[in-house]
Amino acid sequence: MQVCFRLAAAAAAAVLLLASCSLTPSGSGPGTGTASAPAATVPAPGTTRPGTPEEPAPGTGTAGPDASFLSPGRRTARWGSFAGQREACLGVAANVAVLLLAPLSFLTEVDEEELAELKAQVSRTRHQVPKALKEDFAHLEEVLAENEDEEEFDEEALLEAVEPIRDWLAANCNS
């Protein structure tokens, strides 16, 4: 039961960290397009369909979210497939929140389907995170794999595996 409370407290801390993240560019003000989450549906440059209206001028307040952070040319190893610190912090914190809340669904038994979904998410995320976190996410995949065919989910192992990621968030995302 103590592990459940630690898990809930860690998840709450991750959610608070996630809530403090922002994709709003510094120096932006009212009337500028901002994103509250990664815009996954923004078309790549040059892929707009013929006949679609042109984008309004920047700063008019009618444009959609600024998709400049999706430009692959701006990616660096330091922030993985994220454009910069804010996006990396937001993406990693969101995944940590999911990871810390997911075991609550395994309180009575390990649901193989849910565990497979969680493992797939960790695998996808591992390919997106900054280089400094790739090994930590690979270790998370191993921890989740160890829970296959088990009746009881090893929450302690998950918390230990998430700790280095939480440390990275604390070191890189508290500005």
From TrEMBL:
Assigned keywords, A-Z: Signal
Key word Signal present: yes
Signal peptide: 1-27
Biased composition (Low complexity): 27-51
Span list, region Disordered: 27-70
Protein name stated in the entry: Lipoprotein
Native source organism of the sequence: Arthrobacter mobilis
Taxonomy of the source species: Bacteria, Bacillati, Actinomycetota, Actinomycetes, Micrococcales
